[in-house]
């Protein structure tokens, strides 16, 4: 596969995922998401006045395309905005893909296909190690990749273009110079997640997209189409994954329910706790970061969230049994930071208070 083929394929996936569906309604009826809440407290749902205000505020955000709010597993609000795709249609979840990759790594560990988070990655990727590798490469573990603490120079931000136009993404990521020690400062880098996708592929002998469909798609009852691959055919780890807003909500419910779906344990509760425990801190937002999940607070409640710079958001508020999904137009925009701040405010100023009041 040539680099041109990869780029064209990725572009087609992005365009297809963002195309509007004129037949879809602006809002959709409530539905119950799969999964049985773990020790959930009975609630009265959400305060209707605050939710109406949240929807009005959401509709005023020009880049927002969907809003889903689940309380105790029940879909309490389901809206799309500005001719966004239908809520059951797979869209590009961009960097929220990193959180899904983390889940697949946890499932591989549960299945004894990987030894655990302390397993060194160099032996798993030895075919792509540099000719004279820095000795610190041998110290990078699966856990370091998950928590963005590999110490390698980033492949995101200003380094992203050179990386994705290189002939071998895995080799390029492994050849970056060390700018921190393994296990040290958090350096957000899509290359780390892509190395995990390569490890999953080489360890299981199956594509990461195939694993996602079998391990997540089938039990959750959601569609996960194939997405872009690197020149060696490894599914892009950490970007461009396709999942519908409702599919992303069901994935979130898996974590909120302690890894259980319809009474079946498909992801260990220990992995979820480990994933939500911050190991580093984002130098940009100050939020903690675990294994593919950021951590913060909203109106005094702990929040675990997956996000993308363009505004693909998955929020879990365990204390209120809340799962919230927001998807956005992911095209590059100079005011991306302000859009993310507006989405955080939507959660903190309207949705969390609506849940608290609904629980009164």
User: How many distinct domains?
Assistant: 1
Class derived from helix and strand content:
alpha+beta
Strands side by side in the biggest sheet = 2-1-12-11-10-9-8-7
Number of E strands = 12
| Count of helical regions | 11
Give the CATH class: Alpha Beta
Name of the CATH architecture: 3-Layer(aba) Sandwich
Keywords:
360 residues, single chain, alpha+beta, 11 helices, globular, two-stranded antiparallel sheet, Beta-lactamase
Report what the structure shows.
There is one protein chain. The chain has 360 residues and is of the alpha+beta class. It has one domain (3-18, 33-358): DD-peptidase/beta-lactamase superfamily (Beta-lactamase). Helix content is 36%, strand content 14%. The chain is built from 11 helices and 12 strands. It has helices spanning 3-18, 48-59, 97-110, 142-146, 160-164, 169-174, 190-204, 208-220, 245-256, 269-276, 336-358; strands spanning 64-71, 74-80, 91-92, 242-243, 260-261, 264-265, 280-281, 288-289, 294-298, 301-306, 313-317, 322-328. Strands 2-1-12-11-10-9-8-7 form an 8-stranded antiparallel sheet, with helices on both faces. A two-stranded antiparallel ribbon has the order 3-4. Strands 5-6 form a two-stranded antiparallel sheet. Helix 3 runs parallel beside helix 7 (190-204) and helix 3 packs across helix 8 (208-220). The longest helix is centred in the last third of the chain and has 23 residues, at 336-358. 48% of the residues are buried. Residues 1-43 have low confidence and may be disordered.
């Amino acid at each position: 596969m040539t680099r041109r083929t990869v780029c064209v394929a990725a572009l087609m996936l992005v365009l297809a995922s963002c195309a509007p569906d004129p037949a879809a309604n602006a809002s959709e009826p409530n539905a119950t998401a799969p999964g049985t809440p773990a020790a959930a407290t009975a609630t009265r749902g959400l305060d209707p006045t605050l939710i109406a205000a949240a929807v009005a505020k959401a509709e005023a955000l020009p880049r927002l395309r969907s809003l889903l709010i689940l309380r105790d597993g029940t879909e309490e609000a389901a809206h799309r905005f500005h001719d966004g795709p239908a809520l059951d249609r797979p869209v590009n979840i961009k960097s929220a893909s990193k959180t899904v990759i983390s889940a697949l790594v946890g499932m591989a560990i549960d299945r004894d296909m990987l030894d655990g988070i302390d397993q060194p990655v160099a032996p798993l990727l030895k075919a792509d190690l540099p000719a004279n590798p820095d000795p610190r490469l041998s110290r990078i573990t699966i856990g370091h990749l998950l928590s963005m603490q590999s110490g390698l120079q980033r492949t995101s931000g200003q380094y992203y273009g050179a990386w994705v136009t290189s002939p071998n993404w895995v080799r390029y990521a492994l050849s970056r110079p060390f700018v921190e020690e393994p296990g040290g400062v958090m350096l957000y880098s899509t290359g780390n997640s892509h190395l995990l996708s390569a490890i999953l592929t080489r360890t299981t002998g199956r594509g990461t997209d195939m694993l996602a469909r079998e391990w997540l798609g089938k039990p959750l009852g959601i569609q996960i189409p194939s997405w872009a691959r690197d020149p060696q055919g490894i599914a892009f780890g950490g970007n461009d994954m396709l999942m519908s807003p409702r599919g992303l909500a069901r994935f979130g419910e898996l974590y909120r329910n302690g890894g259980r779906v319809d009474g079946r344990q498909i992801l260990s509760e220990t992995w979820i706790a480990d994933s939500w425990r911050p190991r580093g801190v984002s130098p940009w937002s100050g939020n903690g970061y675990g294994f593919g999940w950021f951590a913060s607070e909203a109106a005094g409640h702990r929040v675990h969230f997956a996000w993308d710079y363009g505004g693909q958001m998955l929020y879990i508020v365990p204390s209120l049994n809340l799962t919230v999904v927001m998807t956005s137009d992911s095209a590059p925009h100079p005011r991306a930071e302000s859009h993310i701040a507006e989405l955080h405010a939507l959660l903190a100023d309207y949705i969390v208070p609506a849940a608290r009041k609904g629980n009164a």
